[in-house]
Write a structure and sequence with these properties.
- By secondary structure, the protein is of the alpha+beta class.
- It folds into 2 domains: about 150 residues; about 80 residues, Dna Ligase, domain 1, CATH 3.30.1490.
- About 25% of the residues lie in helices and about 25% in strands.
- It is built from 7 helices and 12 strands.
- A hairpin with a 6-residue loop joins strand 6 and strand 7.
- Helix 1 packs across helix 7.
Length: about 260
Amino acid sequence: MGYRLDLKNPQTFNEKIQWLKLHDRKPEYTQMVDKYAVREYIAKTIGEEYLIPLLGVWDRFDEIDFDQLPDQFVLKCNHDSGTVVICKDKKTFDIDDARKKINAGLTRNFYYSAREWPYKNVKPKIIAEKYMVDESGTELKDYKVFNFNGTPKLIQVDFGRFTEHKRNLYTLNWEYLNLSILYPTAPDIHIEKPRVLSELLSLSSQLSRNIPLLRTDFYIINEKIYLGELTFHHGAGYEPFYPQDWNKIMGSWIELSNEMEIE
């Protein structure tokens, strides 16, 4: 972390995330971080129309019948972060390389990388989803809303993930903030205020009720909203803030309950 943590009286955003890892452990969190099981939760909470179309789910890579998949698709593990394989054309798709990456992901318990408890008991699976791009025609911008007990406070937009990863941060009124969290910000890149912003914030509020901190990640395609994933511990509580004052500002938004007990 670069500084001594005060877990008895945490103040910063990252300190409070470490505290939440230890104390905020509700059984439903396991379903909410499971990229397959969360689909049922999303359908029940906000509606299945916000789900990315599912093409298949398997326990082992060699169960996948690629002849039954379309020319473009996305493979990912349901239980971790980063194990993703994108197929833009089956004719050039390297199945052996995909097998190697996916199988490596299946053997990993993501909990042990940063002790994020919700991932500990997720049963590993492989899912295939529809390949989708936004108005850029080349990528999906990631709209990440930071919510505190059901109240959205800040929006982070990730873009250029496969070229030069940048992050811009905005207020709820879509005012650009001179703030970067881990990745550089790009004030010269104009990202249009989504026409569906109010709907996006309403969905975020519904999904995050009674949760001290929940990041709700969405994609927007042709003004239609799709949920990407739910995240309890942004960056595992390790990402630096510039300017650093924001670590305390965002930390002040997290209300910790004395009712939470360490497991």
